[in-house]
Design a protein that fits this description.
This protein is mainly alpha-helical. The protein is built from six helices and no strands.
Length: 147
């Protein structure tokens, strides 16, 4: 590992291009004349690795923000699709809504149990999931009840 506390201009440029450009990793390395073995050495350096991981975390955070921003629009579109004249499209939209709500409720229930000390934060074994067939039957029953 290197003793330098700062990254070189080349290292900064490579990180910037990997995360800021449209090129893939190998194209960026080729552009800057950095061989795979040198890049692997950089990745083994704590300072470079930390900066690289921070960029990855930032990219994920940015994608989560974008997804959160468009979630209401996606949800509204999904609800619109339940009214589709194409029965298969409407059925799948209903199933997606039910599955999303089930996941959300399971997550909230689990979070509450963890906070109450009733469950550990480890992954639970075998949470029951609603199959498409079961969800379809439930939808059919609900549709009959509303008629």
């Amino acid at each position: 590992m290197g003793k330098a506390s700062k990254l070189s201009k080349l290292q900064h440029a490579v990180i910037e291009d990997i995360f800021g450009g449209e090129s893939d990793e190998q194209a960026v390395l080729d552009k800057h004349g950095v061989g795979r073995s040198l890049f692997n050495k950089w990745l083994a350096d704590a300072q470079f690795a930390r900066q690289f991981e921070e960029q990855i975390a930032s990219a994920y955070r940015q994608s989560e923000i974008i997804l959160a921003r468009y979630a209401p629009l996606a949800a509204a579109k999904l609800v619109q699709l339940t009214e589709s004249e194409n029965q298969e499209t409407a059925r799948k939209a209903c199933l997606d809504i039910i599955e999303r709500q089930n996941r959300r409720q399971n997550t909230e229930d689990r979070r509450q149990k963890i906070e109450d000390g009733e469950e550990s934060a480890e992954e639970p074994e075998g949470l029951p999931e609603l199959s498409e067939e079961t969800a379809s039957r439930l939808l059919a029953i609900l549709a009959e009840e509303t008629k």
